[in-house]
Design goal:
Function: Required for the formation of N(7)-methylguanine at position 46 (m7G46) in tRNA. In the complex, it is required to stabilize and induce conformational changes of the catalytic subunit.
Largest sheet: 4 strands, antiparallel
Main location: nucleus
Organism: Acinonyx jubatus
Subcellular location: Nucleus
Helix content: 10-25%
Structural class: mainly beta
Strand order of the largest sheet: 1-2-3-4
Mean pLDDT: 85
InterPro entries: Trm82, WD40/YVTN_repeat-like_dom_sf, WD40_repeat_dom_sf, WD40_rpt
Distance between the termini: 78 Å
Shape: globular
């Protein structure tokens, strides 16, 4: 599912999207940002390639737009079959994989920007995320029906494994760059799980409900992760959930194959998106015009907002100058609330009504099946008396 506003970061290139526009800027203090208007339709998903050379986005008019970032140039505008839910580039940056609402994954050539899409694989339910292994050997897909599928990229019909264990839709998946055999996943069941995805083996499960405080107003709400981001410098994993103004921070212990909970960062305003920048810290995009961006850094083992930073002030100034592109999505609810399983308990009602009918029959044995007295045919009473 698309977030109301998004943050994409690669190297020192920062992209903030909102509505039908995105602001491309640099975290280096000497460079300015430029707003780019790609049309009148809402951006659904966006992503950078690994090197940051390419940037792609898709909108609700089923357009797939590919950019080159050095310098910024639109390479192609292609059409997808259905509205997309997630994008990712292959590690070689030769293809762009597009997951859509019908459960299909299409590949589009980056080297041939005008080429048509090719159907690679399909699910029976809606896809919510797609990822590629660092060696481009496997394509990983997450769907609404609680499954994570690991397919061979060269022959997507050949399934390597399934990662099963979630009890609700899988909202996000993330292959750990430093440990390419490991996968992180988050779900509407309010868990963060660690997998060895080639075998489908679950290594660790963290229940986010166990981390909440009793006094928190959102303690009983259903929520799912809208972003998983990773900082290789300290092996930190940051998790953003769609209905909670907080960020959960974990540390990946690859040797013990587990996630260690470190802290929770809380905010007064709604957090739209997060992204790590290596060597700098955690960027937080929030619904607050005066301070739309917050940069968090580790201090004494704890993450906290940096008091003053020239890059934060520069990018925040650009956002305030282009705040109109974010105002339209400030109150839009585009979370995962419509994806939860709906349960209908009609058995209890049936058993209750059946018990009521049985009680009426016990109280009035002569009553018929509908509780009404049974009528006798003419002459039936005299025949009974004579017998």
């Amino acid at each position: 599912m698309a977030s109301s506003a998004g943050l994409a970061l690669c190297g020192q290139t920062l992209v903030v999207r909102g509505g039908s526009r995105f602001l491309a800027t640099s975290t280096a203090s000497r460079e300015d940002g430029q707003p780019v208007d790609k049309g009148s339709d809402t951006i659904l998903a966006s992503t950078f390639s690994k090197s940051g050379t390419y940037f792609a986005l898709t909108d609700d008019s089923k357009r797939l737009i590919l950019f080159r970032t050095k310098p910024w140039q639109c390479l192609s505008v292609r059409t997808v079959v259905r509205r997309c839910t997630a994008l990712t580039f292959t590690a070689s940056e030769e293809k762009l994989l597009v997951a859509d609402k019908s459960g299909d994954v299409y590949s589009f050539s980056v080297l041939e920007p005008q080429g048509c899409g090719k159907l690679e694989l399909g699910h029976l339910s809606m896809l919510l995320d797609v990822a590629v292994s660092p060696d481009d050997c496997h394509v990983l897909t997450a769907d609404r029906d609680e499954k994570i599928r690991v397919s061979w990229a060269a022959a997507p019909h050949s399934i390597e494994s399934f990662c099963l264990g979630h009890t609700e839709f899988v909202s996000r998946i993330f292959v750990v760059p430093d440990h390419p055999e490991l996968l992180l996943s988050a779900s509407g069941d309010r868990t963060l799980r660690l997998w060895e995805y080639r075998s489908g083996r679950e290594l660790h499960c963290c229940h986010l409900t166990s981390l909440r405080e009793p006094a928190e107003p959102w303690g009983d709400e259903r929520f799912a992760a809208s972003r998983i981001t990773y900082w290789s410098q300290d092996g930190c994993v940051a998790l953003l959930c769609d209905c909670i103004p907080a960020i959960y921070v974990f540390q990946l212990d690859a040797a013990r194959q587990q996630l260690v909970y470190r802290q929770r960062l809380t905010f007064r305003h709604r957090v739209w998106d997060i992204a790590f920048e290596e060597g700098r810290g955690l960027w937080v995009l929030q619904d607050h015009r005066e301070a739309p961006l917050v940069l968090c850094r580790p201090v004494g083992g704890q993450w906290q907002a940096a008091p003053e930073d020239a890059a934060v002030e520069k990018v925040s100034a650009h956002l305030r100058g282009n705040w109109a592109m974010l105002e339209g999505v400030a109150g839009v609810d585009v979370g995962f609330s419509g994806l939860y399983k709906a349960t209908f308990d009609n058995v209890t009602a049936y058993l209750r009504k059946k018990e009521e009918r049985l009680q009426k029959r016990r109280q009035n044995p002569a009553a018929g099946p509908n509780g009404q007295a049974k009528k006798m045919k003419p002459g039936e009473a005299s025949l009974r008396c004579s017998s």
